[in-house]
Each structure stands twice: as C-alpha cells, then as structure tokens.
Amino acid sequence: MHFRPARNWMNDPNGLVFHDGRYHLYYQYNPNGADHGFMSWGHATSADLVDWDEHPVAIRHTDEHEIFSGSAVFDEHDSSGLGTEGTPPLVAVFTLADQRGRHQAQGIASSTDGGFTWTSYAGNPVLDRGSSDFRDPKVFRYSGPAGDYWVMVAVEAQERRVVLYRSDDLKAWTYLSDYGPRGATGGVWECPDLFPLAVDGDPDDVRWVLLISLNPGGIAGGSGTQYVVGRFDGVRFVPDEPGPPAAPRDGWDCSRAQLEACDWLDYGRDCYAGVTFSGLASEDRVLIAWMSNWDYAGQLPVDAERPQRGAMTLARRLSLSRRGGRVRLIQEAIGPATTPLDPDPRGSTWPREVAAGATLALDLAPQARLRVRLHPAGGAGAGLAAELRFRDARGVSAVLRFADGALSLDRRPGAAGLSSAFGSVQRVQLAEPGLFEAEIWVDNADSGRGSVEVFADGGAVALTDLVGTRITCVELVAVGDAMLVEEWSAEIPRTVLAEA
Ligand code: FRU
C-alpha cells in the first residue's frame, strides 16, 4: 500500500499526473544504488492509488545533469508543439541540476505514449536564472480573471523564496511574482505546490493553498512541510493571515513558538516533499509525499540482498475546512479496501469502559488500519490519558500518547542501532482535550521496520513516522483515569487476508 521501488534509492514524488485512467507516480530515483545520486525519474502507475506497478526509469540522468524534482501536465491543446499529429503530449518539467552542484535550471521533456517514454526538449533549459539553487518546478493551468496560461511555482531554495512564472507554451517563461521568506525558514525551501480548494465545499469561497517543504527546520525536526492558505489572482499569492512570523532578523532559525504559529501538513518526521496530482478535477486534490527525512534517510539500514531505501506515504485526499475560526487543510488517507481483523475479541459491544491501568490488545497483520475513539469515563472535566503501544516481537517499539489534549509519538524504544537522529518524540496539540479519535495506518513492508500514519482531529492533524522495528501488536492502555472506549478496531487490507 505504500509504494517503494523493488530496489535502490528513492526520494520525492515527481510528475504526479492522472492521465488516461492511470495515476502516474514518478519519483527521485537512483538507478545505480541505494544512496542518493545519479538522480533520475523512476516510474510507477496505479489504477487506484493503492496498488502500484513499477516501470522502467522514465527520465534518466546524463553525464552533465541529474534530473531533480518537478511535475507533469497533460498539454491537451499541444501548446508546446511537442505532440504528434492527433496526440497531444504529456510534458514533464524538472530541474536540470549540474553534476558539480553549481547550477540549477528548469528543463522539459515530452511523452506521446501516455507517460512511458520521454524525449528531452532540444532547447533545454527553458528557464534559467543563473542560480545554483533554483529548483522543483510545479506547473499547473491557471484559468481565471487574469487569463488562461501555465503557471510554474518553484523555489530559490537558499533564499527561502517561492518564485512564480507564467507561460503560454511551457517553453518561454516570464516572471510573475515571488513569496517569502516568511513563516518557517530554518532550512532550504523545496518542492512547492499551489492549488485551489473550496472551503467546506463552498464554490463561492475558494482559497489557494501554498505548500512549502523545508529542510531542516520542520516542526518535528529535519524535513517538514508548512502550508499557507491565501488567495492567488493569477499573478501573486497573498496569505489570508498576516500571522505567520516573518523571517527572523538574525539568521534563518525559528523558535518553537514561531514554528507552532505555522500550519504543518504533517507533525511527524516522515512526510516530506509532498505534492499533488495534476489531471484531476479541481476539487479532487490528491497528495503523495516521501515517507522519510533527510536527517537519516541515507543511514537507514538496508537488506543486503536487495538494497533499497525510501517509500511514499499513502495517497491523501485534501480538502479545506474552517476549524476554530481558521481554514485548515484536511487529509483523508486513501488506503486499500479492508476487512475487520478482529472486530471485538470478547464479543461485547461498544462503548466499553476501560479501567485505569487496563489494556486492550490487538494482534496486527503486516498492514492494518486502526480506529480509536475514546472519552474520559468520568464525563466532561475528568482527565484523559491513553497510550497506544506498538509492540514488536521483543517489546514496545513506539508509543502514541494522548494526554491533556496533546498527541505525541515516541519512537525512541525501537530506535536502537539506528542513526542517532532517528530516536525522537513528536508532539502536537489537538483541538479537544476530552476526546481522542484517530485513524492509524500501520505498515511493516519496509525491511525490518514499520510505519504509522496517524490522522486525528478529523484529518486536520496528520503525524507520519517510520518506527524502528516491525509492529506485531498494539495495545490500548488507560494510563490515566478510566476511559470510555467507543471504538477500538483493526482492519486489514483484503489482499493481505487473501495471501494469509
Ligand atoms: C527534496 C529535494 C529537492 C530536489 C531533490 C533532489 O527532497 O532536495 O529539492 O529536487 O530532493 O533529489
């Protein structure tokens, strides 16, 4: 359910495009090994965003250039002239990063066989600012009061600046505006995305979401992605709230308070460089991110027989909703169809009171979806402290704790033998101290490791972490007063059941 190539290194998702009934996922890929290098675009496709087929490398590095991150669009009216008679092309836009690390500019390639083979454009680069850190172009079609044209958002990474350009043919680009530095600036800005969504589905209240990944300087440490909600008039992005702090005067680092004033796509450590698909209806906004962190991605141990590093998060459907006076990004995981694993081992019905100190355990399949919903048994005003203990064959590997309205994930217990940057605790405040409700996807597909993706506060808070060992069982423990459990269940993907 989490895509990973059969071998070798993978990082950012690239060129996400839905075309001819298929989701195409390209990604930063090293065809030669399990470390970052020789960057090329790997390729996988899926009909449902869950089961992926890996294909041969789509766009390969050359002796001069690596192919860094970027996007892909269907050039329906062949504005680029790169199609053939009757076949408009898919056009990929990416960063040509010179092998010596001194120069980055944007190039394009086209495909007339539905995204399987690509031809590099002879006039590359198409956009060059003479910069060493100008990268990660995300292109979309803008159609609004200002006109109808292609827009590119990219970054001047070191300057913590998003730069916007427009084009009529994907080849000649003119400058529109830029955004930043602003908000979180503790690391280079990378992999931006900009897209519209209607607030609570209201077509008269459309906002634009600007995603900015940064590394390091994320809320959980290392790589992270902030988002800003605002307006885009075809030229300039203007945030709704002047709120997020401007860049600090002395250096780029931000205080904890400054980071907490920003909105984050994910509060865990392993959700980076997430971008959305093109080619879907405007309200069908689907994101995939890289499930790792530059702090330790290159040090994760590999299986000697089949060296591989890196995986994607689950695909997530995005929407906007007003919560407590603010417009927040809501995420819904797109996982496999599931079947209850063990709906209720003791046959009793929910809700059930769980005494202080008592435990409800669930054995897990290699992949599972957990759902939990609980209140303090003493009613409003009583404290609520609960833990989900993820266990491997030897003991506890990670603990998800909900107490005093805050959610934290401590993966230090299972981090022995891994990079020192891996052992960490993440924490995020949730909206309601007296209710804990979450959906959690667990996957052990990595060699020797697991991952948890937590969606809480109705999808307004996501927390994604790799964990150091394989998870075989999860316990729900009332660590404070008695609690009233309304739901505690595990479901497993039907495909996993079929294989068992
Ligand atoms: C983000 C990133 C991008 C770059 C790519 C290189 O993780 O650093 O800015 O294009 O990875 O692989």
TrEMBL record:
Q: What is the annotated signal peptide range for this record?
A: none
Q: Which InterPro entries match?
A: Glyco_hydro_32, Glyco_hydro_32_AS, Glyco_hydro_32_N, Glyco_hydro_beta-prop_sf
All residue ranges annotated as the Glycosyl hydrolase family 32 N-terminal domain in the record = 2-326
Superkingdom of the organism of origin: Bacteria
| CDD domains, sorted | GH32_Inu-like
Q: Which SMART domains match?
A: Glyco_32
Q: Matching PROSITE patterns, A to Z?
A: GLYCOSYL_HYDROL_F32 (PS00609)
Pfam entry (one) = Glyco_hydro_32N
Q: Which UniProt keywords apply?
A: Glycosidase, Hydrolase
Entry's family note: Belongs to the glycosyl hydrolase 32 family.
What name does this protein carry? Levanase
This chain's source organism reads: Microbacterium arabinogalactanolyticum
